Amino acid sequence: MGEPFSGPLPWWRDRRVLPWLMQGAVALVVLLLIAFLLGNLVRNLSAAGMLLSFRWLQQPAGFDVSETLLPFDAGLPYWRALVAGLVNTLRAVLVGLVGATALGTLVGLASFSSNALLRGLARAYVELIRNIPLLLQLVFWYFVVFLALPNGEAALQLPGVVLAKSGLFLAWFGEGLRWSGPTLVEGVWQAPLRLTVEFSALVTGLVVYTGAFISEVVRGGITAVPKGQWEAAASLGLGPLVTLRRIVLPQALRVIVPGLNTQYISLAKNSALAVAVGYTDLYSVAETTLNQTGRAVEVILILLGAYLVIDLAISALMGWFNRLVRIRER
Amino acid sequence: MSHPALKPPLGTRLRSELFGSPGNSALTLVLLAALGSAAFGLLHWGLVQARWAVVRANSTLFAVGRYPLDQQWRLWLLTALLAAAAGLAWGLLRSHPRRDRGGELWPRNDRIAVVLLAATALAVPWWLRLEPLIQARWWGITALLLLVRWAAGHWGQRLPARLLALLPLLWPLLYLVGMLLINGGVGLLPVPPGDWGGLLLTLIAASFAILLCFPLGVLLALGRRSDLPLLRWGSVLYIEFIRGAPLITLLFLGQNMIGFLLPGGLAPDRVWRAAWVLTFFAAAYLAEAVRAGLVAIPPGQLEAARSLGLTVPQALRTVVLPQALRVALPTMVGQFISLLQDTTMLSLVGLMELMGTARTVMANPAYLGRNAEVYLTLAVLFWCCCAALGLGSRALERRLDPNPAS
Description:
Largest interface: A-B, 50 and 51 residues
CATH topology of the largest domain in chain B: MetI-like fold
Number of domains of chain B: 2
Oligomer: heterodimer
CATH topology of chain A: MetI-like fold
Radius of gyration of chain B: 25 Å
Structural class of chain B: mainly alpha
Number of helices of chain A: 9
């Protein structure tokens, strides 16, 4: 087709030049776009008199952060408020991870039960939870379940645990390291360890939601182990529980751990929805900070950076765990 | 699959699975008791205690938000158009059996779907206590869908092939017409995005993001697999940046920083800011799904296509991508389902989609404490939409499977 070939190829058709030409064009467009956006950013920010600076972090925050582990009051600077929010996020994520793993593993194992009803229930739980938005589930737990709990005598009472509208009360080491449970003092529950309903609703929502996804990861991992492994173990006289623990799980973990990593990161990111149930996590503190200072760029940079660090930390931890459980072949 | 004759009958199987051993029987009884009491509690609450007026009185608000009443005929027209298009596509699917086994005109699943559709069209408007005229409109729209389905099923084969080839263009065209109808302009009274709300806004945001994230995601996936280092690292950087951040922080970024990033006055409306953020967010996740599909295609495919004389873009478009997208389909639909669910987060940046509407409705003192009714209704709505998408995806998967199992 076209003209018969004559003479050397023009340089722009050279296979060694073409890719670089294309990349150069793409890079140029992207750089121009970035320059355009950054130029606007600098112009708009300087027009508003708010060039990039982090000095405002030292100013007093003027708002309170509820239920912090570190002592906090409104007179402390913004950076302390953000740290308090970060600690709250980490607390919810850590408890959520443990709970979701436990629930997910149980449900994942239940889907292999010999009881058809239990299998069906495990399936129904996954299908129910996966098709309803997490935000909807969180507000449901908070407004419909936890805020509807009674207070005082009528509160839900189990040994060592009391669940009331005023919070979740747990037995723990009280004064003088004495183990003590929740007590009712003049109609008000008191305990060495009290969790707010906001925290409880957030963690419950995250655990129930992520648990459904983790159960699928666990189920996939166990299905990936060939059936012959079960049969071989049974023929050696091992019971089903021993087979699961010593034969199947070590092999399934290879498949499970990367899947868990994804779910853990998504749980950490989803914890930012705490703002919907009134738990003051990092995102909620950042939102208040932005509203008060107007420092949009700095606050968003801090926010994105913090979540990136959390994600990377989880990935690093799971990478280490993956190496730990790797099957050492001889 | 075991031979059906070798399987014991259902009754025997159930008895052995539920009451095979004393432990099993005890577990079954405990579970049955728990299920029974939960079902009884839910029924009792739903029929006796719940006050559904909060949903019934606000059904228009939940459906379209503050869309002007005298312009709502545009939305009805759009719904009718969509129903007709859906009926057409459904009917043609059955009248042109490709790999569908049997190739029946009305397979069992379709008959179930018809019954479900008719029951929904009758029951939901009645339950919501809509005005008789509006109830009748829903019946009419459902009848239109079924009628077009029937007609396309019967006479679809007589349509010329050239017309059928144009059919995929129907959907983007319908999308443009729909946006025109919703937005106004060109002779219609403009309705600003701030007045869109409820399910309408949820669907606009989700469909906009799903449509636009697809090309973007495919490009990013190809970029990530490219030999050109600049393209590859650019794509990796973008994908990992987006995937490392919670969606809510990105929406927050969209609402608060776009104004600084664009010259004054050019920044889009709050609704479109959120829709674009959703699009860019979804593109990164979609790119990963498509990449997994690309990895699954042996490199020999591209090499064979190249040796036949196709250029790289031609080979990608006609040989590699069709196969890769088929592999990626289940994951992609999963992403779309979670995208539909993620639209609820728009309420956290002050937009009035379904969740935002729920919040405003419950701020009304007349409906104080009616959280359970509202949230349960929304949950049922989302569950049905997402489950239907999942079912559709599995059906499409079977249809596209080049090596059907039976």
